[in-house]
């Protein structure tokens, strides 16, 4: 995704991006990567992407290492966090290819790599929100069991692994259409990795945007909002009607961490999905201001892949302790 999903201007070609197509900065609807007449963006964007890549790789590698190596980190919630970190790690690993694509103004890596990068872009769009949905369901079930003073025998680390595999399979099915439409297009001698839709192209383009909006935002976010509303009502009734504590201290901290991760995810991704609505309802002229907003929204969505590790380190005491212990073991003579 190089900028906002504005309506494509040329027939049968849409620029590559997370979840859909867009009108590129050049303004001609064919070049998905070039900066056109905006040299400031050409310099700034690779720098911003490189920072996101470096921070994301470092942070997510640390999260994956700690969860896999520290025995005390083998919890249900951490299994979902591990998968979130893996999804973010995959995206940051291929971000240098997106940077090269942007700088070279064409795609030199072949169609197989084009489809692979498009697929990973889409995994980044969909996987985080669906793992957060699963984490929200898990939090609700924990609250429900606490309210009823029941143990959750089915809530095991192994069960979390199975659920995680199911989420990956589900997201793979969701992104399959984008992988199919991702192709190499020869634009006057310059190869571009883009979505090439069948005729009528504009209808397919709109369908792809609506599909991403519904499956990547509206449905999962609505589910999460309903779950947390029910959770808050349950906690309120517990305080009013019983003498039992709503949750013990540890459970409260985990619930808070999940809610903060969710809030940051929505902060980073809501502008992108709102831009989809704008793209579907408004004919926007590609001015310098609009292109600048476009790149800002793109960078904000990318930044979500490097923010989560800082949230774990700030909110999770056990993560910090495990990380320090592993560092001490590695540095000990």
UniProtKB/TrEMBL annotation:
Gene Ontology MF term list: neuropeptide binding; neuropeptide receptor activity
Transmembrane segments: 41-68, 80-105, 125-147, 159-181, 210-233, 254-272, 292-315
Topology in the lipid bilayer: Multi-pass membrane protein
Keywords: Cell membrane, Disulfide bond, G-protein coupled receptor, Glycoprotein, Membrane, Receptor, Transducer, Transmembrane, Transmembrane helix
Gene Ontology CC: neuron projection; plasma membrane
Boundaries of every G-protein coupled receptors family 1 profile domain copy: 59-312
Membership in a protein family: Belongs to the G-protein coupled receptor 1 family.
Name recorded for this polypeptide: G-protein coupled receptors family 1 profile domain-containing protein
Annotated organism of origin: Scyliorhinus torazame (Cloudy catshark)
UniProt lineage: Eukaryota, Metazoa, Chordata, Craniata, Vertebrata
């Amino acid at each position: 995704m190089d900028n906002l999903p504005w309506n494509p201007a040329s027939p049968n070609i849409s620029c590559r991006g997370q979840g859909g197509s867009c009108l590129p900065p050049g303004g001609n609807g064919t070049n998905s990567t070039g900066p056109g007449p905006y040299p400031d963006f050409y310099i700034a964007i690779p720098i911003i992407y490189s920072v996101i890549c470096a921070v994301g790789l470092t942070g997510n590698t640390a999260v994956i290492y700690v969860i896999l190596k520290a025995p005390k980190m083998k919890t249900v919630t951490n299994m979902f966090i591990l998968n979130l970190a893996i999804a973010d790690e995959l995206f940051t690993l291929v971000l240098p290819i997106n940077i090269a694509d942007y700088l070279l103004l064409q795609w030199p890596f072949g169609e197989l790599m084009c489809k692979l990068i498009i697929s990973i872009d889409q995994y980044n769009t969909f996987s985080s929100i669906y793992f957060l949905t699963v984490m929200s369901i898990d939090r609700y079930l924990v609250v429900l069991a606490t309210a009823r003073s029941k143990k959750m025998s089915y809530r095991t680390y192994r069960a979390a692994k199975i659920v995680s595999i199911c989420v990956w399979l589900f997201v793979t099915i969701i992104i399959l259409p984008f992988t199919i439409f991702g192709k190499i297009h020869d634009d006057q001698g310059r190869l571009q990795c883009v979505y090439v839709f069948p005729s009528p192209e504009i209808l397919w383009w709109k369908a792809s945007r609506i599909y991403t909006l519904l499956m990547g935002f509206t449905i999962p976010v609505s589910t999460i909002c309903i779950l947390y509303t029910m959770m808050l009502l349950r906690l309120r009734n517990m305080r009013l009607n019983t003498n039992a504590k709503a949750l013990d201290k540890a459970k409260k901290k985990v619930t808070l961490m999940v809610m903060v991760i969710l809030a940051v995810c929505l902060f980073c991704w809501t502008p992108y999905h709102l831009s989809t609505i704008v793209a579907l309802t408004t004919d926007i002229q590609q001015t310098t201001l609009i292109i600048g907003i476009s790149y800002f929204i793109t960078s904000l969505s990318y930044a979500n892949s490097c923010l989560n590790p800082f949230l774990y380190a700030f909110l999770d005491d056990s993560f910090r302790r495990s990380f320090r212990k592993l560092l001490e073991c590695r540095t000990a003579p």
